[in-house]
Amino acid sequence: MQFAVPTRNHRSSPFMFSSVSRQLSRRRRPLYLVLGLLAILFVALKLWGSGHGLMRPGDAPEVVLVTVLDRKKYSEEYLAKVIENRKEYATAHGYGLFIRDSTEYDINDAPDGWARVPATRHAMSVYSYSEWFWFLDQNSIIMNPSTKIETTITAPKALGLWMRRDVPIVPPDSVIKTYRHTPPERINFILTQDHDGLNPGSFLIRQGPWAKFFLDVWMDPMLKTYGFQKAEQMALEHIVQWHPTILVKLALIPQKTINSYPTLPGQEGSYTEGDFVVHFQGCEAPERSCEKEFERFWESRGRALKR
């Protein structure tokens, strides 16, 4: 028995396969085009919404200064000077300004210092197109208002020079250290440390999904109610040391860049004339007075500005 063998030109259907394939491809082209446009739109919206994209409105400030006021502890005269100092600096550089009272945030019975975390998150929602947010404690004065954040601190070239690599998170001998090779372009969180550890009295954080994740972790109810001796400061040290996802985005920079302390003999990071900021860390101790220390530097700053 013999079977007929189809020739090379044999067609099992009245249409050539290549012809059918071309027709199907033509039908799918509109679908591919729509899917491609949707993908481009999705990426653009993500960039726009995060404050990093080219679609950011021209009037959106690149930097936002955040301060939380405690009206239960300090006089209105004192807080008025704090506000004046922040407004003067923000206006000079076209920065956004976000000042709120600590009572606006529900931190339950936790120390008032915790309010800095939801306040920073709140500022990001208000200034949704801004990139960097600088939290500065109320017990601080901007002494050198000519300093620009985006050129002297956050610019990758500048930050790369400031970054302290392979140093203990909690000095002097913490086994967890900053990474050696993280590029400055990948940094989302910038702060300083003193001889006791990390100090969140002055820090910079970049808008985006990572920042929201980090602030949520920092504000976790378990950490807030744990009873750390130094409240939000030790909670921060805990999560930085135990979460590589957070540590890899962290840059420690020299204290005098954004967080100098009042001049104290033998203490590294003490304020000298020309420093950007003086922060009266620990001034709420019984033997000290935040308002008196503030006034002393406020007067010296006024004399310097008149020169």
UniProtKB/TrEMBL annotation:
One GO BP: protein N-linked glycosylation
Organism: Terfezia boudieri ATCC MYA-4762
PANTHER family xrefs: ALPHA-1,6-MANNOSYLTRANSFERASE MNN11-RELATED
TM spans (from-to): 31-49
Family to which the UniProt record says this protein belongs: Belongs to the glycosyltransferase 34 family.
Protein name: Uncharacterized protein
InterPro entries (UniProt xref): Glyco_trans_34 (IPR008630), Nucleotide-diphossugar_trans (IPR029044)
GO MF annotation list: alpha-1,6-mannosyltransferase activity
Alphabetical UniProt keywords: Glycosyltransferase, Membrane, Transferase, Transmembrane, Transmembrane helix
Keyword set includes rRNA-binding: no
Record GO cellular component, one term: mannan polymerase complex
